[in-house]
Write a structure and sequence with these properties.
Keywords (chains A, B): DNA-binding, Transcription, Transcription regulation
Number of strands of chain A: 13
Number of helices of chain A: 13
Order of helices and strands of chain A: HHHHEHEHEHEEHEHEHEHEHEHEEE
Radius of gyration of chain A: 26 Å
Shape of chain A: elongated
Helix content of chain A: 40-55%
Oligomer: homodimer
Protein name (chains A, B): LacI family transcriptional regulator
Pfam family, one (chains A, B): LacI
DNA sequence: AGAAGCCTGTTAAACGTTTTACAGAAAAAC
DNA sequence: GTTTTTCTGTAAAACGTTTAACAGGCTTCT
């Protein structure tokens, strides 16, 4: 009852073959005769044999594990990403090692180091700054790496997958402008994060062009509660905007929390365009109009790129850019249509004029 | 520029010591003279040496990795758990290997097998059925295992950590009864899941005792959208209840979605007690009254148990039971206070009479 | 029929660590 | 002054697998 550990040698003995044959049966590295194969499988099954990944990896150098590094495991956006990646990886026989950098450069560095110590066959990361993490510098040509979501603005030495963030901001702004909003507040998480800067730029550029004046931009951070407090603080000492664009799912939460606490209704007097699309956004009386990121496609693109690299693709880095779309619901008031006040009783959501279908588009 | 891999041997050569000494420096297994130690560290740093975990693990049998298995990586409850566990594990120098069973027994089996192939030093799992997964049967005395959240009702052969689910259901029911509600609907995810059955039992027992009749129980599944559709379907062909208890965070979402789509207001005419406590629950005009699970404490208890086991604790399995509490907000109407209708303009949430502080309580 | 080529299976040598057994030097005990 | 003990470092043997090199038994080709 207390057999210490069953190895390939035990299986070989029981099946009456050499250990190499057993290895070949499991790794599929060399073909093996059908009935021998059956004998081996039977023996392995009876002994409840499992190949030891450490030994396997040590000898072969092949890890069948990929590291996944994200900035925050409490942010649904990132966990959705992890969830999708787990499914894709599992389909291809890979396990995933997840680590969170908690948006801290030092922690990112150390988490990367420990991930690399596993000698993974690949790495998918959402880095927490624009600079290439020091720990990855030496790995550039060696280890397949894909950056997702947060990609350096000036191109990267590794493969990247992200949405067109500038356009995402623009879509939000265009929607509000089309509905007659003139006093738009832009709520960002942090301008230190380049995709956020891009979203802000997209929104601000359009607003400036159309209205000839700069919208106000505020930073609410990456924590919903603290963000809500910050926004509350802002609301108390500034005139109420007619609409706010939240550029992140947690900023959306912060915005809604603060508005709720101030007992300010949506979409009248304040309209809101949120970011990302999660069940809670439609689980409310006035569903949230939001910019939808195609998370499944981001994950898929990242995985496909990583898989190609792991298979030996040596082409220069590619940068996939996916499209975000507008998910129109009821949180934006139509000021252009007419001056009627109060909650709209019109059950029809506004049609989506902007064309929201997400489709991949390879660049560079 | 293309050195293939730097091993302990290279470091030893450069530092002018034996490989055993280098190993001792890094593993801390045997003390080593201070200046030798410094030489080794310097050499290692210059070569950017990293110990190879596969080799290390193969020889020592020590993995410094723990497997984490959850039923659904898109459910915030589980990802919060993973997030907390990642922090705790990292603090103790462990990495985590995450896998999702997607609530499928077969997948759970296969995911467990691949986790076990890593020979992890421990395993934290939220199983998807009451039965001990077949893959774990052989590991019982060998591998430290902790089950969290979903624990078999009749005790378990492994350590478990969970909340008092019966009481959680009871608290929700008591709150509604105290507010004068008589027509209560219980929305569960799936009665196949034992903690859900317990919550249902807690709520139903109390309601039966107080009111002398059985409340209606419906199953909405573990997907928010499908659950919303199911509840909508139910609402269309049954009389409106005065209150609904949602026993899961996704059932809460389903419930709110369906009510929103029916344009039924909260808390009047329908009150809602939700489950779990997430930012989106307070990011609404009428904040959600909900049963709060102490996720951080669940994670901590699970990790502490696992750590003790990994350190060699051989005591019989323990079963920690934590307390859930009521987070009172504005989604429950007070029918007892008076017959006034319409949205309450009273900004004060009802005081929490039930005593919500969560505290660990060891059992068995 | 004999040589050449393919299968299919085996033997043995890695892979990079940890760890046991041991050796030499310094310190302590007699 | 010798012996014992303690301390530090080293040599070498694992750990369980993959894989290169090889060895037979076939088929296939001259």
């Amino acid at each position: 009852m207390d057999n210490p550990r069953v190895t390939i040698r035990d299986v070989a003995a029981r099946a009456g073959v050499s250990i190499a044959t057993v290895s070949n049966v499991f790794s599929g590295n060399k073909p093996v005769n059908a009935d021998l194969r059956a004998r081996v499988l039977k023996a392995a099954d009876e002994l409840a044999y499992q190949v030891d990944r450490a030994a396997s990896q040590l000898r072969s150098g092949q890890a069948r594990v990929v590291g996944v590094l994200v900035p925050d495991l409490d942010d649904v956006f990132f966990t959705s990403l992890v969830s999708q990646l787990e499914v894709l990886a599992q389909k291809d026989g890979y396990d995933i090692l997840v680590a969170s950098s908690r948006d801290d450069l030092g922690l990112e560095q150390s988490r990367l180091r420990t991930l690399l110590a596993w000698r993974p066959s690949g790495l998918i990361a959402v880095p927490c700054s624009d600079a290439l993490p020091e720990a990855l510098r030496h790995e550039i040509g060696r280890l397949p790496i894909v950056f997702a979501d947060r990609v350096p603005p000036e191109g990267s030495v590794v493969d990247t997958v992200a949405i067109d963030n500038r356009e995402a901001g623009e879509i939000a702004a265009r929607h509000l402008l089309a509905k007659g909003h003139r006093d738009i507040l832009v709520a960002a998480s942090s301008l230190a994060i380049s995709p956020i800067r891009e979203r802000v730029r997209g929104a601000c550029d359009l607003i400036r062009t159309m209205l000839g004046r700069e919208p106000t931009v505020i930073e609410l951070g990456s924590n919903a509660d603290r963000g809500a407090a910050a926004f509350l603080h802002w609301l108390e000492r500034h005139p109420q905007p007619s609409a706010v664009i939240a550029l992140t799912n947690v900023t959306t939460l912060s915005t809604l929390s603060a508005l709720a606490r101030m007992r300010i209704d949506i979409p009248d007097p304040v309209s809101v365009v949120g970011f990302d699309d999660y069940p809670w956004m439609s689980a409310r009386k006035t569903g949230l109009t939001a910019i939808r990121q195609p998370i499944a496609e981001i994950a898929e693109a990242a995985w496909n790129r990583l898989r190609a690299r792991m298979a030996g693709d040596q082409a220069p880095p590619t940068h996939s850019v996916l499209q975000a779309g507008l998910q129109a619901r009821d949180s934006v008031r139509d000021l252009a249509a007419g001056p009627e006040r109060g909650n709209s009783h019109d059950p029809d959501p506004h049609p989506n004029l902007e064309g929201a279908a997400a489709s991949p588009k390879a660049v560079h």
